Amino acid sequence: MNAPDAEPVGAELTSEDLFLGGALTVRQPLDGYRAGTDAVLLAASVGPLAAATGLVLDVGAGVGVVGLCVAARCQNVSVVLVEREPHLVKLARYNVIRNQLSGRVSVVEADILRATEALHLAAALPETFPIVLANPPYHDDRRTTAAESPLRAASHQMPEEALDAWARFLCRMAAPGGRAAMIHKADALPRILAAFDGRFGSISVLPIYARAGEPAIRVLVTGVKGSRAPVSIRPGLVLHGLGQAFMPEVEAIFRSGAPLPDVLGS
Fold this sequence. Notes:
Elements: E1 14-19, E2 24-29, H1 37-43, E3 55-59, H2 65-73, E4 78-83, H3 86-98, E5 105-109, H4 116-121, E6 129-134, E7 139-140, H5 150-156, E8 157-158, H6 162-173, E9 174-185, H7 189-196, E10 200-211, E11 216-225, E12 232-233, E13 237-240, H8 248-256
Parallel strand pairs: 3-4, 3-6, 4-5, 6-9, 7-8, 10-12, 10-13
Antiparallel strand pairs: 1-2, 9-11, 10-11
């Protein structure tokens, strides 16, 4: 892969990290939220046959890891990344070029609460995305101490009620019958279900465990816009076996770009 002509502004405050066994090289801040396991698992919820859907929307994309992983795994998919923080937008655009994905991945700088004009200018129109993805900030800013870095605070914290705004935006952008997927802390499940209620049905919950026998640390929740089918709980995904080694099926996701079981667009 050829690097872009110019390094992004503030490159000395970033690192370059490899994803999908080195298929992607991503520059991201040393300070603030750093994409990793959750982003790759969310991207793996999109199956290889999603190419037939054409479009995927990555909401709150940060430096673009979720959408870039989807584009790298699904060769005919086009991805739109939506991010509000200007510094992360610059890095996302750099990462798109760095990985030679400019033909299929675009970046829109917009706050989801005020995104209409920016999305319209980018031809990212409501009810046109068969798959919409989100990895929102995990912490309620009224329950946690504000981070020293404004970027860290923005990427890690948001008001509890803002989760409903994320679900509303996902529903607004999803095509009729389109699928949404969100990854979050396990204890956010009641709030996610409440936010999806009336917007998405046929909801599927995948609990994610660090190790067998321990409480879930994450949930990956998917739903179908307009469906009235009931909620289902999928068999859990265990990340680690002995020591820090990934389980074989998880290793395949992180190293080879394998999809999760029962993925979107499979």
